[in-house]
Amino acid sequence: MAWMRSETMATMKDISKNAKVSIATVSAVINKSSYVSQELTERVNQAIQELNYRPNAFARSLKGKSTKTVAAIVTDIENPYYPAMIKGMDDVAIMNGFSFILCNTANDPKRFINYLDLILEKRVDGLLISNISLREELEQVEKRGLNYVLLNRKPPAYDKNYVGINNHLTSELSVKHLVTLGYRNIAYIGGDLKISTAHERWEGFQYGMTEQGLEVNASLVFHGDYTIESGYKHAKKMISVQKRLPDAICAASDMIAFGAIKALRESSIRVPEDIAVMGNDNNPYSENFIVPLSTIDHLKYDMGKMAMESLFERIEGKERGIDRQIILNPSLVARVSCGWLNRSKD
Amino acid sequence: MAWMRSETMATMKDISKNAKVSIATVSAVINKSSYVSQELTERVNQAIQELNYRPNAFARSLKGKSTKTVAAIVTDIENPYYPAMIKGMDDVAIMNGFSFILCNTANDPKRFINYLDLILEKRVDGLLISNISLREELEQVEKRGLNYVLLNRKPPAYDKNYVGINNHLTSELSVKHLVTLGYRNIAYIGGDLKISTAHERWEGFQYGMTEQGLEVNASLVFHGDYTIESGYKHAKKMISVQKRLPDAICAASDMIAFGAIKALRESSIRVPEDIAVMGNDNNPYSENFIVPLSTIDHLKYDMGKMAMESLFERIEGKERGIDRQIILNPSLVARVSCGWLNRSKD
DNA sequence: ATGAAAGCGCTAACAT
DNA sequence: ATGTTAGCGCTTTCAT
């Protein structure tokens, strides 16, 4: 009765009995690994249909080497930065006939370690990790001998398998855009400097300012984290402390920009009329934000895609697989939060 | 050399040799399945440390019954409706010590079938499916004898394992909110009626209108799909066709509302001053949308969570597991797109 | 308290 | 062209 939920699925043995052939023949038919006569092939296929047979992937990879499985550990699937990235990974995995285990740590370091062990037990062929900032976390990965590539964030001075975007350039682009539009007195609200991307964006900001012949005003620099709350808090502080507001804010993430704009609006300061705000990362929310946010796009889908491709090169190349870093270039997305016209300010 | 990426990991046999005990003893130590002397236990643990051993989950579930794995098939991980739902599922899976395979079909029916077979081959213990609308798709699942629970959407007249929200009520709530605020001439822009949720929301709208003693004006009703584009298109059409606009729009999803508001703004029609717009589903974008959107919250996280809990009941209860449907109640989230005050319109 | 050995479902080398 | 058989890593009786 094919329609019944059979507690134990049919096995090759069942097929071989049903089709009155040997197990090896069944295997040969399924894997097309050697010639089998028309007749037996049919009998076997027939039996497979009848018994609703599906090979057991475990038994298979017990013998063989590969489990045809890859995994990814990401810090927060609810953060809009990641879904596109995950889709990029998944698409490539599928394309290669691999299955893909997604592990969401929800920013819990304990869950991270648990996942590492789980992945080991599942004998996964490769692992993508989005967001390792601490060298110790990386060590946990390496000491387990996992085949991995890092995504997005990386620990200090890491120079191996990594795919990310040129964060330094994101800020340069921001500054250049702002300056082109006529803004010169620019505040910076950044992320946690312990995170590589935040660090790079901050460096890029300083570099960009210098390049434009501008000075970074230390009283207009804030470091927090990539959240709405942090952007809100620091903008509030800036508003209350400064007698004269800067004419632009360069935020290190769109979330920060959202928070800053909220704070600004609460004080009836208009964006972009009174002050320009530049985001960074092109969050899917940004286009339709209260004020459509000018920002820097990060090619998140491609990041995931290329990271997975890179991982597959390592998997294919077995032990070898030369370490390499892929750095994607960001691009400017001009919307309305920075205005469009050259305004002259006294 | 523990730091080396060993192509083949240590096995129980290796441990047993290293610790000079039998394989059975190793197994007993690892699973605490029978008493082992202090001394041997230590020797075994020692060897496990040294060889960096991790049990092979495959071999394990080859013998035993359960693979300790669940899967979920979702239609679109990039749609902001789902990440929270997925997190709910994942959290419960983790809690139960199961691993969780996420399958994203990207709305591709072929990928759906492929995933079904994959899941079968991996001998997954249970499956969650968000978004089956077609009876034929369900049949594919059932004929494979999979242990599943449906989420969010369901095929017509489906009365088995399902977790969703009361879509009928979402529209009732919308209408009631609108009417309370003084709106009476209400347009409806809905989704694809072949989708259960869209159908239910449309039914709920009609019911709600009647309940409020209002008539549904057929020329103000549009059915499309849950996208920005669809909302935009139908609002445009309405604007161009109607000599006199309704005083409110009830949209069947936040995306539709976004699109409608876009169209409205393009025609310099203000929201909520000139027309109120009500969303549905409380998309994470909505709070900070161009005009913060009043909408109906869907408890997406809980949907995922409860669906997974329901699935575990089925897994635990083996073959049994009574079929049941869990319907969550939505709630109103009043923001600015519908205004706050009772306005009198002639 | 410990160990030997059978067997889970499959693949692949070897026989026939 | 087809079948026999030895493992893969582990769990689990069953002996000792």
TrEMBL record, chains A, B:
**Per its UniProt entry, which superkingdom is the organism in?**
Bacteria
Family annotation (SUPFAM superfamilies): lambda repressor-like DNA-binding domains, Periplasmic binding protein-like I
> Which residue range or ranges hold the HTH lacI-type domain?
10-64
Q: GO molecular-function annotation terms?
A: DNA-binding transcription factor activity; transcription cis-regulatory region binding
CDD domains assigned: HTH_LacI, PBP1_LacI_sugar_binding-like
Keywords (A to Z) from UniProt: DNA-binding, Repressor, Transcription, Transcription regulation
Cross-referenced InterPro entries: HTH_LacI (IPR000843), LacI/GalR-like_sensor (IPR046335), Lambda_DNA-bd_dom_sf (IPR010982), Peripla_BP_I (IPR028082)
Q: What PANTHER family does UniProt report for this protein, alphabetically?
A: HTH-TYPE TRANSCRIPTIONAL REPRESSOR PURR-RELATED, LACI-RELATED TRANSCRIPTIONAL REPRESSOR
Name of the protein in question: Substrate-binding domain-containing protein
Instruction: State the organism of origin.
Output: Paenibacillus foliorum
